[in-house]
Design brief:
- The complex is a heterodimer.
- Chain A is α+β, with helices and mostly antiparallel strands.
- Chain A has two helices and six strands, in the order αββββαββ.
- Chain A has one domain (2-98): Beta Barrel (OB fold (Dihydrolipoamide Acetyltransferase, E2P)), CATH 2.40.50.
- Chain B is built from two helices and 17 strands.
- By secondary structure, chain B is mainly β.
- Chain B has helices at residues 2-11, 60-75; strands spanning 18-26, 29-34, 53-56, 78-83, 94-102, 115-118, 125-134, 138-144, 153-159, 165-169, 173-178, 184-186, 191-195, 201-202, 205-207, 225-232, 243-246.
- Chain B starts with a helix and ends with a strand.
- In chain B, strands 6, 7, 8, 9, 10, 11, 12, 13, 14, 15, 16 and 17 form a twelve-stranded mixed β-sheet that branches.
- Classes of the chains: A alpha+beta, B mainly beta.
- Chain A binds chain B through residues 21-30, 32, 37, 54-55, 60, 63-64, 67, 70-74, and chain B through 60-61, 64-65, 67-68, 71, 74-75, 77, 82, 97-103, 105, 107-109, 111.
């Protein structure tokens, strides 16, 4: 029963992987905002966009991956951290993978 | 105070996306310009740098902005800028606070690299390139767009120099005048021009098409009715010639 509940909670949590096409990227005051073509309704933050705090090394590396996906015109899979940045506006990205 | 700042943001100049046409790295500072950047109106900006924007590479933001610019350059994507309203990073150049890359989501990863005809901004696609031509009289571009038609779409531009140019002064001096209200491209003015048909004036002198010298130094006796020349945008190409580029 415990395992079943855990699996269910993972399935419906906001940090489940989802695929997005990047529409535009905005950069201001150390925060990268990723706007995707399709919006989502499972963000724990006030905006449905994703965010990266580029003062953090991992986020800066993820930013490089996001830019590579843009340069390759490829969609990306994003996994959220469930944490909000920039005055609770954007869910911080935890994992990015470029999708073929 | 917040309301005032919001209001200031709302009444500031509109932001237009443009393709990067200049990038330079100098003393840990990136200087760049785009096709849509308006002249800076900050008092700290030098006259020669009105079209330039700058940011420092000594900050997290600056290094990330540089990556964004390089990515935009590699795909010919448009970017938008928001000013920091100062010249804090480089003397005489307006500093950028926000940079936004506008990705063209219609592009597919495995696109075969078609060729498009674009407006002069290099961003707005008119259609798929068919052919183009050029002569001393003008330029022409043919393309296909999504609307069904029994022929190709065609844009024609005639050069101002291929027409007789009239002048307000004797000996081809003073202001230039045109005998008709069609749109022409003027290499002298580096923009499109036309005769303002709402105002009729008499020409004092003129030179004929593609002539390098004044053909009629005093034409006042002929009482030729012409129009003052005004600068306009081309209805299809915009501020300059249409462009051809890989999609």
């Amino acid at each position: 029963m415990y395992r079943y509940l855990l699996a269910l909670s993972l399935l419906f949590s906001s940090n489940a992987l989802a695929t997005f096409t990047i529409k535009d990227i905005e950069l201001t005051q150390n925060v990268v905002v990723i706007v995707t073509q399709s919006s989502r309704d499972n963000s724990p933050c006030t905006s449905s966009h994703w965010g990266l705090d580029i003062t953090q090394e991992q986020d800066y590396a993820l930013y490089g991956l996001v830019l590579t996906a843009v340069a390759m015109s490829k969609p990306i899979m994003i996994e959220g951290t469930g944490m909000c940045i920039s005055n609770d506006r954007y869910e911080r990205v935890g994992k990015v993978s470029v999708k073929d | 105070m917040r309301k005032l700042m919001l209001l200031a943001g709302m009444v500031s100049a509109p932001i237009h996306a443009g393709v990067i046409n200049q990038v330079e790295v100098r003393n840990n500072t990136v200087l760049f310009s785009t096709t849509s950047i308006a002249d800076s109106n900050l008092p700290c900006t030098l006259v020669d740098n009105k079209k330039l924007r700058a940011f420092s590479l000594n900050t997290h933001d600056g290094r990330a902005m540089y990556s964004l610019i390089v990515t935009a350059l590699s795909k010919n994507y448009a970017i938008e800028t928001v000013s920091a309203q100062d010249c804090a990073d480089t003397l005489g150049v307006e500093r950028v606070q926000t940079l936004r890359l506008v990705a063209d989501v219609s592009k597919k990863a495995d696109a075969s690299g078609g060729i498009g005809v674009y407006k002069n901004d290099g961003v707005t696609r008119l259609g798929t390139y068919v052919k183009h031509g050029s002569s001393s009289y003008g330029k022409m571009w043919e393309y296909i767009d999504k609307s069904a038609s029994d022929d190709f779409k065609q844009v024609n531009i005639s050069f101002h120099g291929s027409k007789t140019i009239y002048f307000t002064g004797l000996g081809c001096t003073g202001e230039e005048l045109l005998g008709e209200s069609n749109i022409y491209y003027s290499y002298n003015h580096r923009t499109f021009v036309k005769g303002d048909s709402s105002v009729i004036v008499e020409a004092a002198s003129y030179k004929t098409a593609n002539s390098n010298s004044c053909d009629k130094h005093d034409a006042r006796a002929s009482k030729i009715k012409v129009y003052p020349l005004i600068k306009v945008e081309h209805p299809v190409c915009g501020a300059g010639f249409c462009k051809i580029r890989e999609d």
